[in-house]
UniProtKB/TrEMBL annotation, chain A:
A UniProt-annotated Pfam family: Rab3-GTPase_cat
The organism's taxonomic lineage, starting at the top: Eukaryota, Metazoa, Ecdysozoa, Arthropoda, Hexapoda
Places the protein is found: Cytoplasm; Endoplasmic reticulum; Golgi apparatus, cis-Golgi network
Species in which this protein is naturally found: Laodelphax striatellus
Region Disordered, annotated ranges: 551-573, 889-912
Single GO term (MF): GTPase activator activity
Protein name: Rab3 GTPase-activating protein catalytic subunit
UniProtKB/TrEMBL annotation, chain B:
Source species of the chain: Laodelphax striatellus (Small brown planthopper)
GO MF annotations in UniProt: G protein activity; GTP binding
Listed name of the protein: small monomeric GTPase
Span of the signal peptide: none
Record-listed E.C. numbers: 3.6.5.2
């Protein structure tokens, strides 16, 4: 075989340029030498390196350096590929192997080539670029140089033999001039052919690297026997002549694509089947895994590492190379591109919903109209209704009875809807003795709860909702609704029912479950804040109502109620709850010291402020009952901040801001005045801002305290003075409410009512994504794939940031979902492989590692080889697939030519494995050949596959005795 | 120099009443000092553009009332702040011991988990010091915050306090940029790394 074969498939329109001009040639050689020197490859004294350990050629990192080089006006790039030393752990070998004379005539490249520990290393193709370089695989080289037409060259490749010859001889001159022992290759023909010719020279040896590609495989090249003959005849060794026998390594690959009973997929939850018996499990959990078989092909590689040509036979008639008898088995798994996965499907559907243009009305038009009329309910209804003692019954009615009829007409059937609503509002379920799916008690005090492994993996920075709280559950259930209960329509219906229930609860003073108590938590998502706000409103109003009821009861009991108390009943706005005790205390105090005239009788006292007395009288200083702080959700704060910002940053703006912010100061001063008739500003300051009251060191003559206001309080016209002067004594309960809970509640409900399906989806997006990531990480934790968890962490922090900055662009979230889909697919692949190869629980670490390696690595050794449990499992998979093939063949052929099929199938019956899809051989020999007296290393790498045969040979000769 | 604004940052000033929060802000923005600074009611704010390593950054600085009674009002405005200046008065031990509470407050209400904090000991021009520089430094180290001492009256340390805080915010990944701005930050970083080192040194800041 010679390089003439490259003439095959020549392209007509190959760029022509004259390489023969001597000067061009010399320039090329000079440049080549320059580069070799620059790369320090001319050190002929270099030590012979220790042989590589098994697999190092692919497991270690490769580095490459690249330069441009011209031949005439044709631009090439020249690249040096070399294996790094890094993960060796050993210090570079210091002893010089070349001390030995024997070693002095060895070339590193050829020694590597003859070493068997890195045979058949897997290469991975990425954008048509292989890693490691194909040459590393073909010749087991750890360092080499490749010259190929640069991407900017006029012609994309060279094909003329004459040009290749000129290039090769130029290389030959250059490497000799430089004493460079690193093999140099040139790439010819179209890049996809990976066709390389090269040479390596030094220490009296010249090795040539040749290649042949043939689409049609000659009959005698199909088996080892024939290939041995090709090898030997190229070497000029007579068959049967004495000399070292050829050493052979072989690798046969078998493909399996028919899964039969080994197929694997994850079913989505089917609520139809569960019919009203939907468990909390199904509702509260997002589905996970590949819904279709995610593995497309398993390839078994049977490998015989090294045997003598005489030990095993592989000919057309007979073969010893039976996969079951191979020394080692390796497995590769090919995956379906973007397999369908349940969790990511759910997420993409919600994203789709976020983009939806549909309105609630489109889906629920009639249904909504039929409903209870105008949503506004007067507070008086609320008062009467909340007197109903058994709350459970009231709620039960809310969606238990009154809605049952009409619900059945909604997109989600009543059978389905009720369990969902009970799941969201478990306290409403009075059909059972105990609540079926109560909210975790930890909601609201996450501080006291240790995050579990999964939760701490993705962090707690999500602008989400309490885990397994109402908003969380709603998000999950909404995803179910979209996926399995009827798409956008179902989502609209569910949202509508949710809003209805909220309104019912507001109207009836029943708190919303599954939300943390207290003011809206700005770290949570907006919907969660809104629900907290609604609860604040419900709580405040209930407090007021209860106080009113209590005092009504109290006055009802005593007919001879005193004037003062009667007056209190008249209070229209009884905002701040005062306990009966307080009222009683107050009255006794007032009775015993009737020093106040009726008009400035103190009201709204909370308690005495220590033993402080008013400056201008003998009265104690009382802390007044004040209005409570105002809860706000983030959108309201933003609005407020916007208003403040718009006032500008100058003095006037500052003053206006102070005015705006003074409402609570005014309220407090009024309360104070009401509780402390006859008090002066100084008294107020002593309670309110004690630092601004500077007490004299010496008490006054009469023992009373004396002091002055701080200078900043004395600034004429400062807000404190001004507000003090205009404030009237009004107890908190008679003041205008700073927090108008009715209005705020209506605002919340109104906003939720007005949400379109897309708005609802957006409100639920973060909790859903959060829940998805949690689900993902729970599935990922038991898997031995180091990169996976860190990838999920990375996705999480990306998602977290998006929500923090309130990213509006749905595409950005789609990117996140794609990454989730990718991770989910990998986990699905592991699950499928586990099902196929080693089903059963309690996998050992080694097994888990094997499974996840199959997903990420191109080729993985089967632990224990052909005779292990996995080996047996693989065998039975092949056997079953084979049976199916035979059965269908027989069925097909029964109707046609009976004779032929019989003979054919009988021959196949014994075999478990199909014909190999690929066969690879590496033939090695150290021998003296043709024109050389010395024993030299030679190698031939053969690949027989569906695309024909490719042979890569390296043949050496000595240059000294020629 | 690039005149376009790189980003707008929200910065909070918190601490006990009377420690000089408004005075620090006034000194930084208007370079004025008022011995009779009015007590702050609720929140106030001022804006200032500063130039850092050739980039213009707009600061919206929110001055909050330290006064106990306004505290229910102020934390709402902590939202989305990228930086917080915690001020105490070196002549009032109590204002220093209360810092712990302020940090908790910040922890609870700030929406950014990696908000940059700077502890400032103010009024160092006064003689009756009750908190040593060392104590302040130790506190800062314990809570992993920046630290500086200042005087709104004499201007000592005021400029530095703000500039260093901003510098640190800009260097904190994910704190101020949205995804599109990542490249801007990278560009910023490349040009400023060395200067950053220097400025923190010359100001005597501590991290
Ligand atoms: N000597 C001296 N006095 C200062 C300094 N900073 C502030 N002051 C004075 O301390 C007093 C309080 O200052 P403010 O700036 O109003 O304090 P604040 O922290 O804003 O107080 P609140 O608004 O109540 O939270 C004023 O009288 C200032 O003049 C300083 O550095 N040195
Ligand atoms: Mg102030």
């Amino acid at each position: 075989m010679s390089s003439s074969t490259i003439q095959e498939d020549l392209d007509e329109d190959v760029y022509h340029c004259d390489f023969t001009t001597a000067s061009e040639w010399e320039i090329f050689i000079a440049r080549l030498e320059e580069i070799i020197h620059e790369w320090k490859l001319s050190s002929s004294n270099a030590n012979l390196l220790k042989p590589l350990k098994p697999g190092q050629l692919s497991s270690r990192n490769w580095v490459s350096k690249c330069e441009n080089i011209m031949f005439a006006d044709f631009q090439f790039s020249i690249t040096r590929y070399s294996l790094t030393n890094e993960d060796d752990g050993e210090t570079p070998e210091s002893e010089n192997l070349r001390d030995n004379d024997d070693e002095n005539v060895k070339l590193q490249a050829l020694e590597d080539m003859m070493h068997i520990d890195n045979d058949f290393i897997p290469v991975v193709y990425n954008d048509n670029i292989s890693h490691p370089h194909v040459l590393a695989r073909l010749y087991s080289l750890r360092e080499f140089i490749v010259i190929n037409p640069s991407s900017s060259a006029v012609a994309k490749y060279i094909a003329e033999e004459s040009k290749i010859k000129i290039l090769l001889s130029s290389i030959c001159i250059a490497i000799n001039n430089c004493s460079c022992e690193v093999p140099v290759f040139i790439q010819a023909l179209e890049p996809w052919r990976n066709f390389h010719l090269g040479l390596c020279e030094g220490r009296g040896i010249r090795a040539e690297f040749e290649m042949v590609h043939l689409k049609k495989v000659p009959q005698d090249c199909k088996h080892l026997t024939g290939l041995l003959n090709v090898f030997k005849s190229r070497l000029g060794m007579m068959s049967g002549s004495e000399g070292e026998p050829v050493r052979v390594s072989a690798k046969f690959s078998y493909s399996l694509t028919d899964w039969t009973s080994y197929s694997w997929s994850q079913e989505p939850p089917n609520f139809e089947l569960l019919q009203g018996e939907i468990g909390v499990e199904e509702l509260g959990t997002l589905p996970f895994g590949a819904s279709m078989e995610p593995v497309s092909e398993l390839i078994l590689h049977a490998v015989w590492p090294e045997f003598l040509e005489t030990a095993l036979v592989d000919s057309q008639a007979y073969s010893d190379l039976e996969p079951q008898r191979a020394t080692n088995w390796f497995l590769s798994a090919r995956m379906v591109d973007e397999p369908a996965c349940l969790l990511s499907e759910y997420m993409f559907e919600i994203l789709e919903l976020c983009r939806s243009q549909h309105s609630m009305h489109e889906f629920l038009g009639d249904f909504m109209q039929q409903d209870s009329g105008p949503p506004l309910t007067t507070p008086f209804d609320v008062l009467t209704e909340s007197k109903v003692p058994n709350i459970g019954k009231v709620i039960g009615q809310s969606f238990g009875h009154s809605r049952r009829d009409r619900s059945s007409r909604g997109p989600i059937s009543n059978d389905m809807l009720m369990p969902i609503l009970y799941f969201l509002f478990p306290d409403a379920d009075n059909s059972q003795d105990s609540v079926r799916s109560p909210y975790p008690e930890t909601i609201g005090n996450a501080m006291n709860r240790e995050p579990n492994m999964a939760e701490s993996t993705i962090g707690n920075g999500f602008k989400s909702a309490p885990i397994d709280g109402l908003v969380w559950r709603l998000a999950v259930v909404m995803a179910h609704a979209v996926h399995t209960l009827g798409g956008t329509k179902a989502a609209a219906h569910l949202w509508y029912e949710f809003c209805q229930e909220l309104r019912f609860r507001w109207n009836n003073g029943i708190k919303i479950p599954g939300v943390a108590p207290g003011f809206p938590d700005l770290k949570m998502c907006l919907l969660n804040q809104k629900l907290q706000m609604l609860n604040c409103c419900i709580e405040r109003r209930n407090a007021v109502t209860n106080a009113a009821l209590a005092s009504a009861k109290a006055s009802g009991n005593s007919d001879e109620s005193e004037e003062e108390e009667e007056e209190e009943e008249d209070d229209e706005f009884y905002d701040c709850a005062m306990s009966e005790e307080d009222v009683a205390k107050q009255t006794t105090v007032e009775k015993s010291k009737p020093i106040h005239s009726l008009w400035n009788r103190p009201v709204g006292r909370l308690c005495r402020h220590g033993n402080l007395k008013l400056l201008n009288s003998d009265e104690f200083l009382y802390i007044p009952i004040t209005q409570e702080a105002t809860p706000k959700t983030e959108d309201q704060i933003d609005e407020d901040a916007e208003v403040l910002l718009n006032l500008g940053s100058d003095i006037q703006g500052s003053e206006l801001r102070t005015q705006l912010m003074s409402a609570s100061l005014l309220s407090d001063i009024e309360s104070f005045k009401a509780a402390n008739p006859g008090a002066v500003l100084e008294d107020f300051i002593r309670w309110y801002s004690p630092r601004d009251w500077i007490e004299d060191k010496e008490p006054g003559e009469d023992g009373s305290v004396k002091g002055t206001l701080s200078s900043r309080m004395q600034i004429p016209g400062n807000p404190w003075l001004e507000i003090w002067s205009v404030a009237k004594p009004v107890p908190a309960r008679r003041q205008n409410r700073l927090f108008d809970y009715t209005r705020e509640a209506e605002k919340v409900l109104h906003r939720l009512d007005l949400s379109q399906p897309s708005d609802a989806a957006r409100l639920l997006l973060c909790p859903l994504l959060h829940a998805s990531l949690l689900r993902l990480v729970q599935q990922a934790l038991p898997i031995e794939m180091p990169g996976l968890i860190s990838a999920i962490k990375h996705i999480s922090s990306k998602a977290e940031t998006l929500f923090r900055v309130c990213e509006k662009d749905i595409n950005r979230y789609a990117e996140i979902c794609k990454e989730v889909a990718h991770a989910e697919a990998m986990i699905g692949q592991v699950a499928s492989l586990e099902h196929k190869l080693c089903p059963g629980t309690g996998q050992t670490w080694q097994m888990k590692k094997f499974l996840s390696d199959l997903v990420v690595e191109p080729e993985v050794a089967v632990p224990g080889g052909p005779h292990s449990d996995i080996g047996k499992r693989i065998k039975s998979m092949f056997a079953e697939a084979r049976r199916v093939v035979l059965m269908t063949n027989e069925a097909d052929q029964d109707s046609s030519d009976g004779e032929k099929s019989k003979s054919k199938s009988s021959g196949l019956h014994g075999a478990i494995f199909p014909k190999p899809t690929e066969k690879e051989f590496i033939l090695r020999v150290r021998a003296a050949c043709q024109n050389s007296f010395l024993v030299m290393p030679h190698r031939l790498t053969v690949q027989l596959g569906p695309n024909g045969i490719s042979m890569a040979g390296c043949f050496s000769q000595d240059t000294t005795f020629q | 120099m690039d005149d376009s604004v790189l980003t707008t940052l929200k910065i909070l000033i918190i601490g006990e009443s009377g420690v000089g929060k408004s005075s620090l802000l006034m000194r930084f923005v208007d370079n004025e000092f008022n011995a009779d600074q009015a007590i702050t009611i609720g929140v106030d704010f001022k804006c200032k553009k500063i130039s850092l390593n050739g980039n213009t950054i707009k600061l919206a600085i929110w001055d909050t009332a330290g006064q106990e009674r306004f505290r229910t009002l102020t934390p709402s405005y902590y939202r989305d702040a990228q930086g917080a200046i915690l001020v105490y008065d070196v002549t009032k031990k109590e204002s220093f011991t209360k810092l712990e509470t302020w940090l908790n407050e910040l922890e609870t209400y700030s929406t950014k988990s990696n908000i940059v904090k700077m502890v400032v000991g103010n009024k160092i021009d006064m003689e009756n010091r009750e908190v040593s520089r060392d104590d302040g430094m130790k506190f800062a180290r314990r809570h992993a915050t920046l630290f500086i001492e200042s005087s709104a009256k004499t201007t000592d340390g005021v400029q530095c306090a703000f500039e260093e805080l901003v510098q640190k915010i800009i260097q904190t990944p994910g704190l101020w940029e949205t995804q599109e701005e990542t490249s801007k930050r990278a560009a910023f970083r490349a040009s400023s790394d060395d200067d950053a080192q220097q400025s923190s040194y010359c100001c005597g800041g501590y991290f």
